[in-house]
Amino acid sequence: MSILINKDTRLIVQGITGRDGSFHTRQMKEYGTHIVAGVTPGKKGQFLDGIPVFNTVSDAKKETGGNTSVIYVPAPFAADAILEAVDAELDLVVCISEGVPANDMVRVAHHMRGRNTRLIGPNCPGLISPGQSKVGILPSQITKPGPVGVVSRSGTLTYEIVYQLTQANIGQSTCIGIGGDPIIGTNFIDTLSLFEKDPDTKCVVMIGEIGGTDEQEAAAFAQAEMKTPVIGFIAGKTAPPGKRMGHAGAIISGSSGTAAEKTRILNEKGIPVASIPSDIVPLVKKRLS
Amino acid sequence: MKIHEYQGKDILRQHNVAVPQGAVAFTADEAYEIAEKLGGGVVIVKAQIHAGGRGKGGGVKLAKNPAEAKAIAEKMLGMTLVTHQTGPEGKKVQRILIEEGMDIDRELYVGITLDRAKGKNAIMVSTEGGMEIEEVAEKTPEKIVKEWVSPDIGLQPFQARKLAFAIGLSGKQFKSGVKFLTSLYRAYDKNDCSLAEINPLVVTKDGNVLALDAKMNFDDSSLFRHKDIEELRDPNEEDVAETEARAADLSFIKLDGNVGCVVNGAGLAMATMDLVKHFGGEPANFLDIGGSSNPEKVINALKIIQRDKNVKSILFNIFGGITRCDDVANGIVEAFKKAKPEVPVVVRLTGTNEEEGKKILESVGLTAASSMEDVVKKAIELAG
């Protein structure tokens, strides 16, 4: 089992003919993801490795029965691409694009309220349910099927931690990068509640970073609503306040966004926090035994 | 991105937000002329640097007449201003704002920023103008009143009225206050700001409501559609290495340690810095070379880090995904050919094309470290 994507996922790639889009389409297909269609406006009728290209997401859905999309379009066009997927009533849309204007995301998030489409990202590596399906850009060779759910605001830091789990022979149910921006479609709480409902996820690793209060709210949720144990990690202990550490969302303003404050709250809510990445594996092992 | 107070006020003026009359001066003579144009009476001379706390640091002075304004300008221009936000090294004053003086009755506060948790822009007001708003929020949160703006309909008049009432405005002041708040939100929204803070917002004795100070920050991701704002960037206000890094499409923040860090991905970069600190070292910087595989980026990264003479060793922590290890290795080799770094370099490569990358490194006598911890420990040891 897994969350959000599995063997039944039928994927549409928005921006399939672009440089990143075509490269990652091939990677996902090689991994076994069921890619049913691509979308690039004006390129209807073309094929990429046998995958038909359509002008619009709704055409692609109608013709192929796609239920999920992944977006590889440049940031200025990303909000529009998300709204198109929402309009076509897909179940899930994963936006990889980095650098989407904050106000665009405010409008998108507002528009999506009360609708059935779920957004992951933007500015995220996507997700993988090892052995079943991959939607995004995560390197699949470092993953293996198993009982641990991994959720993170970061990309390569997720890879590092998944790699350490796999090296210790601990597999994953689903690994998901929710994105490093201030406004994202799916937050820690949403993901934790999905993992809680998944019978095959026995432990969750939550990888947070400085900025905002998402980790603190997720910790309160985990304490109140979850039976599945959660392990935490917070990046950015050495980050100076007021400086944006790469991710638009990773900026300390006020005391609530610091790593120390987040760690304190997580501990208070019963979530052990690994002080360095290599402490995660022993903490997970303890919870699984 | 940050801009100067006077630039912020220019933008506010364009959106009909009330601000005092004034203009920027780069020389003492210009200061004299502006003071004269403002009527020859009392003016305020304000140092323009990208940091708060200027008043306490001696960067805001009252002048009774143009001659006095000139004398103050002569002293202020070129001085190094140290405030609680500049750090001990301070910032050199190169521009000053000359503004009409006014009789202030009350100092209030208004700020607009993104509320991440609600996913909406929030406009907040307080009667505690002139204070650090975070302090007010911590000690007396009831003194801050907020309204959240629905992105499809914008700030509504009833919300502006609520806020104006909350800060005790009435009569003529109330009318100008409502207009002020509505126009300020428009300026914030139209320019894709990440912050518009007026502290203090003043009520004058004759009942006008004006922005005595203006702090406007912009969403970096939106600058592509605001070329006019991009042009307001003042390179003197930014760290040379950070400016250079931005031009090279690298995300870089200078810190005070001696272990230089080159990492792909912001989260991993932060975790690497934290690990340096954990094992007893001090990171010299945050540097994310991003997702692309361009060897030129590695060359630039090494150049920028080595500008900092405190740096005694440099570590690479690369987890290949989109970034390919062989491309990074090629970048390192090319950089070594152009100018071999004066300090030792240690490298960790894992992920896409790892083996190819390691072979390339061996050609210049570099052995890849086995893990993130390994590379961090080695770099600390080499830094001494």
Describe this structure in words.
- The complex is a heterodimer of chains A (289) and B (384).
- Chain A is globular, with a radius of gyration of 18 Å.
- The mean pLDDT of chain A is 95.
- Chain A folds into two domains: 1-123, NAD(P)-binding Rossmann-like Domain (Rossmann fold), CATH 3.40.50.720; 138-289, Rossmann fold (3-Layer(aba) Sandwich), CATH 3.40.50.
- In chain A, helix 3 (75-87) packs parallel to helix 4 and helix 6 packs parallel to helix 7.
- Chain A has a seven-stranded mixed β-sheet with strand order 3-4-2-1-5-6-7, sandwiched between helices.
- Chain A has helices at 19-31, 57-64, 75-87, 102-112, 156-167, 188-197, 214-225, 259-268, 280-288, and strands at residues 11-14, 35-39, 47-48, 51-54, 68-71, 92-95, 118-120, 126-129, 133-136, 145-152, 172-177, 203-209, 230-235.
- The longest helix of chain A is centred in the N-terminal third of the chain and has 13 residues, at 19-31.
- Chain A has nine helices and 13 strands.
- In chain A, strand 10 (145-152), helix 5 and strand 11 (172-177) form a beta-alpha-beta unit.
- Chain A has 289 residues and is an alpha/beta fold.
- Chain B is of the alpha+beta class and 384 residues long.
- Chain B folds into three domains: 1-20 and 103-238, 2-Layer Sandwich (D-amino Acid Aminotransferase, Chain A, domain 1), CATH 3.30.470.20; 21-101, 2-Layer Sandwich (Dna Ligase, domain 1); 239-383, Rossmann fold.
- In chain B, 36% of the residues lie in helices and 25% in strands.
- Chain B contains 13 helices and 18 strands.
- In chain B, strands 7, 8, 9, 10, 11 and 12 form a six-stranded antiparallel β-sheet that branches.
- In chain B, helix 12 (354-362) links the parallel strand 17 and strand 18.
- In chain B, helix 8 (240-247) runs antiparallel to helix 10 and helix 10 (295-306) packs across helix 11 (325-338).
- The mean pLDDT of chain B is 92.
- The interface between A and B is large, with 61 and 52 residues.
